[in-house]
Write a structure and sequence with these properties.
By secondary structure, the protein is of the alpha+beta class. The chain contains 4 helices and 12 strands, in the order H-E-E-E-E-E-H-H-E-E-E-E-E-E-E-H. The strands form 2 sheets. Strands 1, 2, 5, 6, 7, 8, 9, 10, 11 and 12 form a 10-stranded mixed β-sheet that branches. Strands 3-4 form a two-stranded antiparallel ribbon. Helix 2 packs across helix 4. The two termini are 24 Å apart. The chain binds ligand 9ML. Ligand 9ML binds next to strand 7, strand 8, strand 11, strand 12 and helix 4. The site of ligand 9ML has 22 residues, from strand 7, strand 8, strand 11, strand 12 and helix 4.
Length: 240
């Protein structure tokens, strides 16, 4: 994959997104407003518009027990599971397999009245990162999705309005030492999740509609996705 034309962009965007995801909502200056809370999950957004279109950056932080960052990123990255947890997905297609950890997707999402239907083309990269806090702790895992162009799916050539997004799922795992001699079980594992996303809706959509959609869909997505991974992994050996 190091020889692929996208490789320099992938390296740059992954470094930028991971650095941003590691910033707390406090440190990255003012402007983050809490808009949803559910147990350990906190969802923040900044109200931003580009050319009169809502492109509110979103940052969600969540802590889940019993699954590792590698497991979360495995189920987020791999196409074969996506229809199980991505409720707004209408169609998904892998356009290119750049390497086993780098794919290019085309997705159409269900139409959200009164806006027109959207589609997206993005590269998706799965990456293991060293744990910079605790050298002998589990690694950090991330998936970065970033819009790209593809000759088979020119933007706005069909019925869908092309959206543009950058998404980063960053997962940091912690293992609390079990009682002396006991093996590590899923009860000893905690994963801190940071999900950052900026979605440019492409064509015009009413700000009120977009903000209502984001307020409804993002909490639902993160809750459903983490519950899905817990259910998929509960009887499987732990993947670090
Ligand atoms: C008028 C609505 C315009 C935007 C509709 C739309 C399209 C794609 C997306 C989207 C596409 C990909 C990703 S992902 O994280 O890369 C995972 C892979 O699927 C995430 C979200 C979002 C939304 C916005 C509904 C909003 C919404 C928010 C969370 C989930 C679903 N829908």
């Amino acid at each position: 994959a190091t020889l692929h034309r996208l490789w320099p962009e992938i390296e740059k965007v992954v470094k930028q997104e991971v650095a941003m995801a590691k910033l707390g909502v406090g440190e990255s200056g003012t402007g983050w407003q809490l808009f949803a809370e559910d147990g350990e999950m906190r969802m923040y957004r900044r109200e931003e518009e580009v050319d009169g279109m809502v492109v509110d950056p979103l940052k969600a932080v969540h802590v889940v027990k019993g699954i590792t960052g590698r497991e979360l990123c495995h189920y987020f990255f791999n196409p074969q599971y996506r229809y199980d947890w991505e409720t707004t997905l209408e169609h998904m297609n892998v356009l290119e397999t750049i390497s086993e950890d780098t794919l290019i997707f085309h997705q159409t999402h269900k139409r959200i009245w009164p806006a027109s239907q959207r589609d997206v083309v993005f590269w998706s990269h799965l990456r293991r990162l060293p744990n910079d806090q605790d050298r002998d702790g589990p690694d950090i895992w991330t998936v970065v999705n970033n819009s790209t162009e593809h000759p088979d799916h020119p933007a706005n050539a069909g019925k869908c309005v092309r959206i543009f997004l950058t998404v980063c799922l960053l997962c940091q795992t912690r293992v609390d030492p079990p009682k002396a001699g006991a093996p590590v079980s899923r009860d000893d594992i905690t994963c801190k999740i940071t999900y950052c996303s900026v979605v440019n809706p492409g064509g015009w959509a009413p700000a009120s509609v977009l903000r209502a959609v984001y307020k409804r869909e993002y909490p639902k997505f993160l809750k459903r996705f983490t519950a899905y991974v817990k259910n998929q992994t509960k009887d499987k050996p732990i993947m670090y």
